Amino acid sequence: MVDEWAEDGVKPFIYINPYISDLSDFGVDLRQNQYQIGVENGYFVKNQDGEVYTIPSISIKFAMVDFTNPDAYNWMKSIIKENLVLEGRAGGWMHDFGEYLPFDAVLFDGSDPYVYHNQYPADWARVCREALDEVEGGEDIVPFNRSGAGTSPKDTRLFWMGDQLVTFDHWDGLHSAMIGLINGGLSGFTIGHSDIGGYTA
Predict the structure, then answer these.
(1) To bridge 199 with a disulfide, which of 8, 135, 159, 163 should be the other Cys (CB 3.0-4.6 Å)?
(2) Which residues participate in catalysis according to the annotation?
(3) Tens of pLDDT along 158-178?
């Protein structure tokens, strides 16, 4: 499919987040079991019992890549370079999430999870920026982030206002996206966008 698109000069827009799901119970034929790789190599955030911290999300559970572990950091960077850029030949992607770090998590380098909670999305953005710096043509790829911290603009090419309602109201509709864009711009998050038609509902 990507080959056919390339003939017309079209590149796919892809999606990624720093959470890896265990799909073993779903009967999916996996080319690469990233969950198993992460568990075997200690790449995930741990809970107080020293086990992988899994977080439920509707029908799945996921583990979070521990960016305080240099090997895990580089592993995620390689996923971006190999799967999204080289194989997927993406023109960009939603570089989603990053704000879920639990306050009772145990991190590889012993960081306090209360302190590291807001650093996590900044490191998630930095992983992306470094990956694109290391691949040919990376300067032409446009990922966009939803989560962030005060230092995120230096590592992020584009910010996204998140999932608004399909309304014009100022609580969570198009009006709220405009408020977010203005406030973000005044706070140093100068390049942003939102879904014109909303998303939720």
Answers:
(1) 163
(2) 96, 99, 163
(3) 999 999 999 999 999 999 999
